[in-house]
Structure formats: C-alpha cells, structure tokens
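We were asked to recover a plausible sequence for a given structure. The inputs and outputs are reproduced exactly as logged, with field labels preserved.

PROBLEM: sequence recovery
POSITIONS: 182
GIVEN STRUCTURE:
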C-alpha cells in the first residue's frame, strides 16, 4: 500500500470520528500542532529511529502532545504508532487538514515576499482573496530573499508570480532569444 493511501485512510477515519463527536475544529487545530511539530528535525528522527520500540514511542509522543492535543488525536497517534505507521503522521495531518478545508469551504493560500508583511496588509490580501473566491481563506506568509521584490501568491493550485526575480528571468530569456542584427 502506498504512502498516500495509508495517510488518507487514517485521515478520513479521524475526520469521521471527530465529526461524529462534533470536535472537528479542535482536531483541525491539533493537526496544525502535529504538522508544525513534524517539521522539526528531532521529531522526524524520533519517527524513524529503529532502536525505539512502539511502546517507547507512544510514551514519548504522549509526553510531547498530551497537553497540546485532544484525546482523540492522541489515540490516533497511539494507533498509528502501534501499527508501525508513525512515519505517515505528517501525511495524515496534511490530508486531514485538506479534508477539513474542503468540508468547510476554506481556501488555502501562501504569500511569499522578500520582506515580512505586516498584519494589516495580510488582512487586506485575505479580504481580496475571500471576495474573489467567495470563501474563507487560510493565508500564511513566508520570507524568501530570492524573490528580490514583489510577491508570489499561491492559492491552492493556482500561482500568481509578481516577483522581481521572475520578471528578471523573463527579461533575460527575451534578451537571449532576440538575435543581434548588424
């Protein structure tokens, strides 16, 4: 069974269970905590270290998450570790968040700029996206100096690149394609 099928099955089961218990919003927040934790190198190592037994991993993960996530999320983590599928935790969290957003009609967007963007500008961008797509927006931002200036806005699978770096690449390509005539 491939990784995505495993992650999707656990995510769907967790979504259904959370929905039945009417705690979807809480579990969504738990998945955000899990996603950010999974990005840590030390946590990734914990998931793949071969010398730890599943019972030891369950204790460690329990101590990490018990004060930060709901009981249902903790039980899902325990089940995943018992079934030796702990390397799929990041995928499970990602798929759960995707299912939740689809169910709630929330668009996911990312803004990449060369400099940090203040909160008022972020709110303005959120409002524009909300108006254009007629749905709520979950907007995150990051800083990448390679953008040089401008921005790159990704809304789900659509990308709008208004960066200086992109414009410079286009200009360079045009200049290289033009022939020099005497």
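RECOVERED SEQUENCE:
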């Amino acid at each position: 069974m491939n990784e995505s099928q495993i992650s999707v099955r656990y995510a769907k089961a967790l979504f259904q269970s959370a929905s039945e218990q009417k705690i979807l919003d809480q579990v969504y927040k738990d998945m955000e905590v899990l996603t950010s934790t999974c990005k840590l190198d030390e946590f990734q190592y914990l998931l793949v270290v071969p010398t730890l037994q599943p019972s030891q991993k369950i204790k460690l993960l329990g101590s990490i998450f018990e004060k930060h996530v709901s009981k249902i999320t903790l039980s899902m983590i325990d089940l995943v570790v018992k079934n030796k599928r702990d390397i799929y935790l990041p995928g499970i969290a990602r798929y759960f968040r995707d299912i939740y957003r689809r169910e709630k009609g929330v668009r996911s967007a990312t803004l990449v700029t060369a400099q940090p963007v203040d909160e008022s500008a972020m709110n303005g961008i959120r409002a524009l996206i909300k108006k254009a797509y007629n749905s709520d927006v979950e907007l995150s931002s990051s800083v990448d100096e390679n953008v040089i200036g401008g921005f790159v806005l990704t809304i789900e699978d659509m990308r709008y690149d208004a960066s200086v770096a992109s414009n410079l690449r286009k200009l360079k390509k045009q200049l290289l394609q033009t022939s020099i005539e005497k």
